[in-house]
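Could someone model adenosine-5'-triphosphate with this protein?
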Amino acid sequence: MPLDILLVDDEPTLRLVVGDKLAAAGHRVEVASDGARAMERLAERVYDVVICDLLLPKVGGMRIFEHLRREAPGTDVILITGQGSVPDAVQALRNGAVDYLTKPFDLERLLHELVRVEEQRELARELRRVKSALLSAGGAGPGAMVGRSTVMQRLFERVETLAGSDAPVLITGESGTGKELVARALHERSPRAGRPLVTVNCAAFPETLLEAELFGHERGAFTGAFKKRDGRFRVADGGTLFLDEVAEIPPQAQVKLLRVLQEGAFQPLGSNETVKVNVRIISATHQPLKQLVADHRFREDLYYRLRVLDVRLPPLRERRGDIPVLVEHFLGRFSAERRITGLTPRAWAVLLHHAWPGNVRELEHAIHHACVLAGGGEIDAHHLPDELADVDPDDASLPLDGGIQPLATALREFEREYLQRALDAFGGNRTRTAEKLGISRKNLWEKLRTHGLKPAGDGRAED
Ligand SMILES: Nc1ncnc2c1ncn2[C@@H]1O[C@H](COP(=O)(O)OP(=O)(O)OP(=O)(O)O)[C@@H](O)[C@H]1O
Ligand SMILES: [Mg+2]
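Reply:
Sure, complex below.
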């Protein structure tokens, strides 16, 4: 499997020589000549490997490395050092860089390193395949997450990657965006999957009771504690503890939680015994936790401990491309014996243009509601809940489409995707792509310009 590589170095000759060599070895290479450009590329897409000089103009290599560790933990990083930056490189190696090469370096060593990276990635992919096959064997049950938008596709990849780690994850996003589903997926795809996933809704308990719930208590520890009881932490030992609505944890419990995160230990209420546990913590909130920290309502140290890794779920209105698949998904769930045959264009118009303040949960309810009301046949706009009346299905300016666009738009989209695939397949080589597509190089060049596409690099991608 060829690798998608970003090569970042400010020396033009190095970019050219190394870029050519990598492309000749079959990899898809893009290049960036300084740190700022590299960051722009990284904001746009995820690479398999980033080969990065440490001494760079604008944004330094260490910053890029740290950014990647945070934002794209699945990307392998190889660093290039000149004189003087070796200590940085060694530090990066400790923090998960694959290797560092000292200039002038041996190209064969780099290629050899990439073969190793490829093997590792292939193994990891195989493992994921096996896992997701196991998961989907249960069918598209209530636990299944769907989404075809680019943001959600990336999010699914990120979930796969983060699942392998033991570090705490903080999931943020508006109400109804799927935070709980992500927490489940993280657990189910982790090595802890065979162990318990214990959920505690931190908003559901008054102060002392939450502490007792989390850490357990001795008999008589407080009024009403008639019996000794194990806390959720102990129940979750070896598995995952999901702290939902984590922003609601009262100050006292925040201190205790911090200690568990630091030392893996706590004391049950009314007990002197120290309990050690091995629990992965996933937390979620729809509140702006950072703001709560600024307002001194949530401990800053705890905040950073909880969000070593993070997943942000975008609101549904920012990923309308997911609406059609979500509708299909929920129809499958709520249309008893598939008696609903589909949706009218007026119903689609409403679903595609509603603001969805309640996100996926609101969409789920809307489809459930409509399935019950319609009973069978097609769902029309008037079967949808009243809250969706902010969209007028008869507004002539709305495209009545059900996800169906005008043919010209659809063809344009298809062409764009097709060109991108073809370019990728030929490692960005435009001559070969044009040949294969049976059009002239000039024609291809014009099409790429209209679509705003850039070849993924033929080793000299900046031409
Ligand atoms: N991508 C998705 N695919 C399928 N179903 C989804 C998806 N996202 C959310 N849902 C469904 O929408 C509902 C709300 O999701 P969930 O409970 O995970 O949201 P949440 O972010 O935890 O919300 P809250 O902040 O209100 O607790 C659930 O029934 C869930 O199954
Ligand atoms: Mg929730």
